[in-house]
Amino acid sequence: MVDRVIDNPILNSPYVEPGRHFRFDDDGITNEIVGKRRPSQYFMPVPQAQRRSGQLSLALDWTEDRLKTNDQVNLIRGKLDVWRKQRYAGATNTSKALLAHWTRPDRGRPLFFAQIEALETAIWLSEVAQKTDPAFGNELREHNGTFNDGLPRIAHKMATGSGKTLVMAMLIAWHACNKAANPMGPGSRSYSDAFLVVAPGITIRDRLRVLLPSDPENYYDAMDLVPPDLRAGIERARVAIVNFHQFGRKETGAGANAGKLAKEILNSGDGPSPFTETPDQMARRVCRDLANRSGGKTNIVVLNDEAHHCWQGPAVPDIHAQQEKLTGEEKREAAARASEAHQWLNGLKAVHAKYGIRRIYDLSATPFFLKGSGYGEGTLFPWVVSDFSLIDAIEAGVVKIPRLPVDDNAAPADMPTFRDLWVHIRDQLPKRGRRAEAVGEEPVLPDEVKAALHSLYSNYEQAFRDWEASDPAIAGATPPVFIVVCNNTAVSKRVFDYIAGWEKQLPGFNRPVVQSGGLPLFRNDDERGGWRDRPRTILVDSQQLESGEAMSPEFKRIAGREIEEFKAEYRTRFPGRDADALTDEDLLREVMNTVGKPGKLGENVRCVVSVSMLTEGWDANTVTHVLGVRAFGTQLLCEQVVGRALRRRSYAIDEDTGLFTAEYAEVYGVPFSFIATTGKSGRPTVVRPVVHVRALSERANLQITFPRVVGYRYDLPDPRLSAQFDDDSRLVLTVNDVPTETTVRGVVGEAEVHTLADLQAVRRQALVYELARTVLPRLRDEAGNDRFWRFRELVPIVRDWLDHWLECKDYTFAGMVMLDQKKADAAERIYQAIVRGTTASRGTPRLRPVYRSFDSVGSTAEVSFDTTRRTYETQPDRCHITHVTLHSGWEQTVAKAIEATPGVLSYCKNDRLGFSIPYTHEGVQHSYEPDFLVRVDATWGPTTLIVEVSGQGREDKHAKTAAARNLWCPAINNDGQYGHWRFAEIIDPNVALRQMTEIVQRVRTGELEETH
User: Fold this and answer.
1) pLDDT per position as a tens digit, 746-763
2) What is the DSSP letter of 968?
3) Model confidence, pTM
4) Residues with Cβ < 8 Å from 46, sequence gap 6 or more?
5) For 146-162, what is each residue's pLDDT tens digit?
6) What is the distance between the alpha carbons of residues 873 and 892, in angstroms, rounded to a whole number?
């Protein structure tokens, strides 16, 4: 059996050409070392889950159809090997001098081999290949004609953390020094001293200032890139750095002064707007510092940082791209990416038309096309000429090794719970565009999210203690950083509040009291009911900050306290500066970009919660832990978020081995895996047409709204509380839902086991108080006022329940009750026992609903999804939604019957509507989704009818229907906020029209009675 345990993943020095690599087979990586360099292939190796077809094995998603050799790169590598031995024959004297300077053995700070090879490739293609191997140039021109409308692009693939910015500085130095050495002679037009550096956002744009020769921290001096005798060349270089958003065509001065009516009149034709820049004007604005003073072509050299953002779709989409299935969210993201990519590429086309572009150098860790681009996802840009991949960087120790969950002790499943977290939680979190949490609302999270936070935090806590005890000269002066990437503002605010703390208005206090966050090292509270002066956890929206646009009012509202605290710190640090002159965006951008940097605003930050993807320019090398709480529709998104944790903290060489030592990053919730790239096709499949099911605004009068209920409570009398526990009160904890141990492993290197150690350490008294606090709101009076004095009565009841009615199976412990769903289950059992004990001699108390704390009202207006299932097109005067999706044979029959029933005002199929009814079956909490909602014109006013179509009987069927009839409807009707509700069943779909007519008639006349 092949051994796959690799203790030391680092095989090569980062300063010389890789000479060894680990062999892969069909099942993944082995510990067999091959004594030569790995060929360039399209792959992204990460550990695959150990669970595979019921067997356990550490493996990569590494099969023959997922590999494609990059012949162009491998051929160039062979040419470079020969060229090095020839001492760079055919290169200019200036190029030879620079190469000798960069490879000097006595350099104070040697350059990575990956950086040298990228420059060697560029120089060889420009100065040698056109004479000795013109086929390479012809092939690149052909690729650029096909994919880039002739723009002269070449791409260097370099793993995150391998030094792309330094390569850009070397490219600028090579061009500028050659231009200065031969300004007018033969071949001078091969070089340029005008450089346009294009970045995907403001963060990278600002970080790239080191490419300006005039910058005090420029790389030419700091990294000793230019020998003294060539320094004059770099001093003549003109460098402009922009983010691609500046390619947007802005409103002209005339537009700013014109009135709205004038604009509408003059914009009414088909021609270009007189109030918007032409492409020529835009190019002049962007390149104003680069233009040739003589008025001729400038022949600018462009450097695209993170160039995977710059592409255009094909005239005829690839067949495999056509088969890609995108969800609604993926479609929105793909459309946004395409819009940005086209703006970037069209901007370069305008610059080329106006000034001429000599060469475009693309630098990216992932220069491949994305899902939704029109090409097969993972197709490498054909103009890639050099490659230093992630696995090469790992084996050279250039980057941290990402470790992902490969196993856990939860019930058997296809994937470890914390590997692809989103599939477990996506229906339990606020949707996009909803409001953030209201002030005073407790941040409730799905148990899987809390468990993932605590599992990853327990490992972080150990890393933090190790950092505290280490030598600052080695470990750095700032703490390790934990990042959480969320899908929208509402979710990120909830996660942020749970981690850092939140405010609650308590009786007797004239201001909100800060409630402590759930992760001690990340708390922003001072443990005395107030906030710390310096936040340890920050909330950012990186997309808004990167574009340079103003932040949304919603985000400013939830980040207001954070902004004010950093303004106060700014005043303290820089007493001579005006903090109020800073925009809120500038301030938060400064904090975000200085995380992990001593002496800066962000130096004390330990945790970053991001509303959207943290961009590539966010280059903190202190990130050690990553949690994704969002969908990852493409592998680029996976690499983008994992890439934020790849930069090494220390570049000290181990004196015994001459190599770097391994550093690791722990990653949860990011399903990072290899992308198929060969484009192999099997037999064509029949694809059903995609139908967009949605609510129509013109049918708004047919809208149906509904409350979202998470539980039930009773109006209890005032006498002293007592509890009557029985078998229904028992709660059994298992690892079926949430693992307590998770094994993480990188593609190579050591494995590690993460646990819920901090939850296991929760004191018993803390459990008692937390459960009592959770039950207390259920005991409010009829006016909704809290009865705080009953907390003392609750404590002994909760203690009794913990002693006798909580059962912990193998690998579980009482502290797991702190997870929100488990806590809710425990509180429900305790509450029901109190209802039984307190009302035993007083009759049945009045039932009330417990509404969801967020998005408490749902609506048919929210329905919008694509489906390839068969559909039934609804009648426009009966349904707000365009179609009923047909999952089985009876939906269409019942839908037609409902439409034909007299007295029906409107109806909808409960498909992706979000309407559910909580119920308990065999002591376990469940959620039941009935089939239809029907609005009926009853004598006392419109009534909403919950309709269930009964099929084969299941043992939980009675529990579902009983909950709807005897709990949900009575609770909502008692509350009175959402009108009248009834429940009914269609027993036989074959006579649905007759049954619906009878049911609706009974509702209209009051014969279908409600239960209280």
Assistant:
1) 777 788 899 999 999 999
2) I
3) 0.75
4) 60, 61, 402, 404, 672, 673, 674, 746, 747
5) 999 999 999 999 998 89
6) 9
